[in-house]
Amino acid sequence: MAGQALKTWPAPGQSRQGLKRDPSLADKQGMPRSIESTREPAATGVRALRERPTEIGGIVRQPILDPDGLIHGYELLLKINPQEELPAIDSNDVLTILDNLALFGLDRLTGGSLAFVNCTAAVLTEDLVAVLPPSLTVLEIPTSLEMSPLLLGVCSTLKRAGFRLALVDFTEDSRSHPLLKLSDYVKVDSSCLNASDYERVCRPVKGTAAAMMASGIHSQDSYRKAGAEGFKYFQGYYFCNPEPLPSAKIPANRLLHIEILRELFRDPLDLDTLCPLVLRDASLVYRVLRLVNSPIYAIHDPITSLEKAILILGDVAFRRIATLAIQCALNAGRSREILHMALVRARFCADSACLCNLDANEQYLLGMLSMLPAMLSLSMERIVPELPLRHNVCQALLGSPVQERCLLDWIECHEHNDVKACAAIANRYGLDHRRLMQFYVDALAWGAADPGFTA
Question: Radius of gyration of the chain from Cα atoms?
């Protein structure tokens, strides 16, 4: 399978030869359209976008969560040419972002959540944001932007049109900013603040309708401090870094789930090995039998055999049901964004495996398991000895510079918009940067379109 496109992992729209499958169900499993089949963008401002050739590979999506760990929105960051330094955002950068959003459809990149998009004066005054849906868009306006009467009037018009406004890089010196009273959000870079600064910065915002948002929240300590100071939303990867539990081993039920996952990625399925494992998970057995005995399959006599149920469902449907159930179980009690990231990483690694002659099924599993420390509150060093995986895959999870890890390394750096690191990884392994970017956007769109993704 090495070097081939992924055929056996449980993704919508995928099919393969193997166990018998009812072809009449092909359109009942929530198959998303390809990324190319998107809606046409709004007419206003599109001509200016089309006249500028797109020279970047794609967009970086970073999560914004509420205090309950639920997704409030995503900031969509520009991914510039990987050979260049990351500059301050300018009008051309934002034009490229808008062009990508108009092409792909905003909801396909955010799953219907709010999109926070950084803007310049030119983008605002030239009405280029008209390509974006107001109900899903938050326009981020730097406090350093000079607010002329024209620009202030444009922001007021956009606000009335349904766009939300966010003041970013807010500091104590921004307390008299003319947009403060119009803003829905005020974003503060928490990495630049200590405990005493929080109160001084937050004080002028408390008398307005704006919600305080902290960016750069990458640890549980910074999350607690920002929450204590009244911040309502948090941008960063703090949820990926939970405080480790004292237990040194994976709980037995979680280890069973991982063993089932490994068997799910064998091609073909080995039912003699898989069925005894699945039978130890009562909830998974219940899901499978309930589905196969539902009116969808129109079975006259009740099916009570797990093996027979899997044969009727077909391997694609069974892998999909089982994988989603296990992923949700592993992530129980955690932010759903952890599961979202695991699925996007898995899809990206699987699709990109063809670029470096790696096994797509194994890469899917590697991407998904990379989020186990966040799911289980255990270090990867404690987890890996319990995993029934090939040696090099275990080394990849531990961070060793083996080839099996190259795609996971790339997407981890991409998530943090580390342009230089992404370029270095691509160059080292001879990876096509543009195809990597397309696979990433495809993974985001697949995740947003998959009904099980948000179930």
Answer: 23
Q: Is 352:407 a contact under the CB 8 Å cutoff?
A: yes
pLDDT of residue 450: 52
Give the C-alpha distances (Å, rounded to integers) separating 61 from 75, 76, 135, 411.
6, 5, 19, 11
DSSP 11: -
Q: How far apart are CA 100 and CA 282, in angstroms?
A: 45
For the chain, counts of helices (H) and of strands (E): 20, 8
**Residue from 167, 130, 127 nearest 150 by CA:** 127
Name every residue whose Cβ is closer than 8 Å to that of residue 107 and which is 6 or more positions away in sequence. Answer: 133, 136, 448
At residue 211, the 3 state secondary structure works out as: strand
In percent, how much of the chain has pLDDT > 90?
A: 30
- Per-residue confidence (pLDDT) for residue 401, from 0 to 100: 92
How many Å separate Cα 148 from the centre of its chain?
37
In this prediction, residue 78 carries a pLDDT of 58
Point out which residues pair with 64 in neighbouring strands. Answer: 73, 235
Regions of the chain with pLDDT less than 70? 1-58, 78-97, 100, 104, 192-196, 244-249, 448-455
- Tokens 């955690």 — which residue? 334
Its sign, for the CA torsion 259, 261, 267, 268, is positive
What is the structure's pLDDT at 83?
40
Could you give all domains of the chain from N- to C-terminal order, each with its CATH number? 46-240 (3.20.20.450), 243-333 (no CATH), 337-455 (no CATH)
Which of 68, 148, 135 has its CA nearest to residue 335?
68
The answer to whether 145 and 151 are in contact (CB under 8 A) is: yes
Distance in angstroms (rounded) separating the CA atoms of residues 147 and 398: 49
The position carrying tokens 């987890």 is: 383
Three-state DSSP class for 426? helix
How far is the CA of 232 from the CAs of 190, 223, 225, 229, 449, in angstroms?
13, 11, 12, 9, 28
**Distance between start and end Cα atoms, the chain:** 31
Reported residue count of the chain is 455
Residue 278 in tokens: 């699945």
Q: Measured between alpha carbons, how far is residue 192 from residues 195, 198, 214, 219, 296 in Å?
A: 10, 10, 11, 14, 56
For helices 433-449 and 419-429, give the axis angle rounded to 10 degrees.
110
Question: Rounded to two decimals, what is the model's pTM?
Answer: 0.76
Q: Which helix (H) or strand (E) holds 65?
A: strand 58-65
Q: Phi-psi bin for 333: left (phi > 0), alpha (psi -120 to 50), beta?
A: left
